[in-house]
Amino acid sequence: MKLFKTFSLDTSNHLLWRDGNRVPMAPKAFDVLAYLVEHAGQLVTQDEILEALWSETYVNPEVLRKYILEIRKTLGDRPDNPEFIETLPKRGYRFVAPVLEESAAEPPVAATSPGIEEPATEENVGPTAAASEEKSSSGRYRLWKLAVLPVLAVLVAAAIAGQHFRGARNRVDATSLKNTSIAVLPFADMSAAKDQEYFSDGLAEQLINDLAKISGLNVVGRSSAFQFKGKNEDVRDVGRKLGVANVLEGSVRRDGNHVRITAELIKADDGFQLWSQTYDREIKDIFGVEDDIAQAATEALRLKLMGGNGQPVASNLRSTNPEAYQAYLQAEYFRGRGQSKENLDKALAYTDTAINLDEKYAPAWALRSLVQNAMAESGLTDTTEGFRKARDDAERAIALDPTLASAYLALATTQIFYDWDWDAGNTSLTKAAELEPGSVEIFRLRSYLSRVVGNLDQANKLYEQAVALDPLRTNSHLGRGYLLYVAGRYDEAQTALQKAQDLNPQAPLVHLTLGKILLAEGRSQQAFVEIEKEPSGSGKLTGQALAYHALGREQDSNAALAELIAKHHTLSAYQVAQVYAYRGESDKSFEWLDHAYQQRDPGLPEVKSNPLFKNLHQDPRYSELLKKMRLPA
User: Fold this and answer.
1) Which numeric CATH code is attached to 2-101?
2) Looking at the whole model, is its pTM more than 0.70?
């Protein structure tokens, strides 16, 4: 144990403590700090550190500077008045704090770390919003690919084939982690003004989308990977929480038209850095060399990653100008912040800007379609007009680029949630899945479609894959819990819903779904207690109307239902119909189902699978409704 000021450095267990509390630190940053502490008081050159810690691989010196910056941040050090690490320009570094040895010291007791919570802006209060929960699929354009494809080629090749760089001691345990798994963490914005978050987030997301195109590679979804944004979490903990063998992280520094992107690929089990690289480019000069790099990356993927048998990332790239590209990133950024009117309005405005700057920019058309779908589905725009625009934009994107998975995903969203054309939606989703087999949002929408048409076994299998790729997203477990409830697998459903609640205790619809399970089990009083905890206003009223009826409190049930109708009738016709069906009031249920049909209520496609409508199944009007919706009887 090495002690300096209030810190204790446990080199045996690879841990840093401060006043008895563990300090999270990336493994390689720890190694750099340990090397400096070991040579305290001595000048150590940059080359000496690189040779000591990266002797078997090439590392750009920029990576070392990044780790020094991270260490200073962790220690609370200032480069202009250093207490720990002194920089000697053009010479190297010196650890200046006094260091004491304490070999017999017991490790401090670690403080309990708080759980990771999903940001409220990423919540989506309804299982019918599956198609617009996630960010859009790939946006392939020339500026991104210059940075993305070289990184993509080397990092994935290393992740899959490069696990043998240091022999058996560095191999990932196959029983706990798959070598063919990777998480791309949000890239840090290192720009002086800290105003390039949309740019750094966009780079990470583009890597996620591109990697998802490679069959056989398990890529963690954006929502779970972005849980670690702004957190200085040990990469080994990241790997354990996400269930991956490899983690890619990096940074973006932009100054005017100059962009510097640094990326590094790390093994999650031991923190060993497999690869790193820094790219310096001027935006105005970026187009000339891109095709050569794209081709080289494609070959690296084909030969190194998949042994010549895999599907290489396509290099038939579309050209656009930097301003259109940046507007597209801004649109992605605001869409990723949540489904509020303000965020979606801004996202729509930026897609318009991108398209005005380059009307042949297919990714912008696809993204605008996804935004239009989300706004129409949530009632922020006229339903008919919103979905019509979404369909037009998706078809335009496909015409411009028939290999763009996000365009088929957007078209499928319209076909499923508005057209109720299940065959066409399935065709579009099948095409999207062929182009991007690892996409979380495609898995989710395919699962939803399977549930709608009554294939619950397939729906569960598809959703299991979505949860595996997005394990830290609250809605992953909420959606899984609801699906298991529909399938009558109540114990499993409660387990999934508990996971959702652990991730976000205020998640909407968790308590409502738990209450429905308890009602199905005949535990009416427990169901009522659970529903009273529901934070969603419309969800709580729906649950109260159901639970009061089950308890024989008809007056209270009527009061809750009347309030639901008064406050939410324009968006909750389907929920009102549920209550009437559960209470055995068939005529009123069909009346509200007709309202839902006329309004194109996004919940109505679930009528076939929803257990609350079982009282209607023998009514001829139920069969007629399924026929009108082109659902199998």
Assistant:
1) 1.10.10.10
2) no
